[in-house]
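Structure tokens please, single chain.
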Amino acid sequence: MSEYEHLLEVNDLHVSFFTPAGEVKAVGGITYTLDEDEVMGIVGESGSGKSVEAYSIMGLLQSPGKVIGGSITFEGEDVLAKDKKEMTAFRGSRAAMIFQNPMTSLNPVYTIGNQLIEALRAHDRSIPKEEAAKRAMDMLTMVGINNVQQRMKQYPHELSGGMRQRVMIAMGLICHPKLLIADEPTTALDVTIQAQILELMKSLQAKTHMGIIFITHNLGVVAEICDKVCVMYAGKMVEQGPVDDIFYSPAHPYTEGLLRSMPRVDAESHERLIPIEGTPVDMLNPPEGCPFAPRCEHCMKICLQKMPPYVEVGEGHRSACWLRVQEALEQKGGAENG
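Here you go.
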């Protein structure tokens, strides 16, 4: 048993962007844990704070963004207390990130081999170049790239989108990190390549036992790869729980809306997809109460006035919704009267 309880603990994290127009509260108090050998999905529409939260963990938050509250603990160490040098050592060797667009993440003027070798030697200068090149080729083979000696000499523009994404995964894993954050890594790829990349990530995770945070707005991807799910809306974690609970008994109207707006293989042939009405919240002026209230068909007066507390709706499954609070109170009242 390791000396720390969880691989990663994020507790009441608050991140804001201080712009000339005012403070944008991008992340408003999110809490979760991730263990080794676990894959967690973070879902939500664009602008919900998914990537900002990931950049905070990796120390990649750019000005005017700032962590203003809460804590991030990795293997028992306070990540937010690390200085620039310590964060550089932390990134890559212990935690790595795969970005959304591999074309902008890879340097166009360096060969694939050069970039992989440099990623490895940045964390361990004692590795001879020949050894680093061998490890880079082994890594490319591991992520399913063929003819690796030729690929090492090629530039990013000479590879297809799917191959570039495989190179990014190889680069993320070359130092054998314990945590991998994948920020929508399949968004720019077509469906068949998406399936291959997901299959690859599942097999790599089984081999390396690392913890993975998979950021996406695609619930189909979550069902395929994740053990548990956190649903984000307007910088808040509105629901979190095991993947089966989220899909088969969602406990927040936003999660229900996401599931209703997604095509299903087992649906009736003429079933209509139901979009979520309304527009996302203005993060400069977030509502007083539940951020989803203006778009929610179950909205009550209290929803507009006060943010709901988290309610346990199952084992490891909790939701921030006044409907669930009401249900819990009714069950408690029924039990006391019974």
